[in-house]
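Annex B. Sample input.
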Amino acid sequence: MKLAVIALIPEMLTAVRNYGVIGRAFERGLAELTVINPRDFAFDRHSTVDDRPYGGGPGMVLKAEPVIAAVDHAKEQVGEGAVVIHCSPRGVPLSQAHLSRWIADGKPLIFLASRYEGVDQRAIDLRVDEEVCVGDFVVSGGELPVMMVLDALIRLLPGVLGDESSKNDESFVDGLLEYPQYTRPETVMNLSVPEVLVSGDHRKIALWRQTQARLVTEKRRPDLLAERKKTVLETDNRLESGNDPKSRKFHE
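Annex B, continued. Sample output.
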């Protein structure tokens, strides 16, 4: 998968590119990453990429021209069909569904990591396709959110994880948080592993894990359960009405 990141501090991306299973994915050629500094596309001898905001206010804003030029250069590197994604507190909440869709689409992705008070809106209007947010908090720059997105995205690529089934058994994949996990020893400070997990009965274990995942989600993220019920209801309605493509094909 071809990826590009536009960032004012490109050195930060080495943490993703050089370590762990994600680093090995780059080594094995499962993903390619191009990092572009918008300073390389500034128009003056001082490589100025920011300026005061119109209308006044604190901080600085990334200028439109260097960002637009950097995006255009990134498209030349990864392909014209690339989708440009801006990590921003104003974006829609990033979900596992976004990642799965990007993987399924198979298009090159360009991530814009802005800084300061953000980027000139004209650059967003002219070049950005999607804006996503990794959480309801603010950090000093977009590099960290982009690194989080890259990690979450690349681990979904076929062949990246040693056990491919593991990515189907994690939080958010089925609209639920993950069930509790245990390992050896069987007892730690008088707390023992639930008996069902050492019973050897795989059917009971699967049922226990499903129940625990639902209980954890209900307690900590009831919004996920509500969304999950909505999705299931919509699917059932499509099937009943015959509007689901698979359903139509079956009846044909």
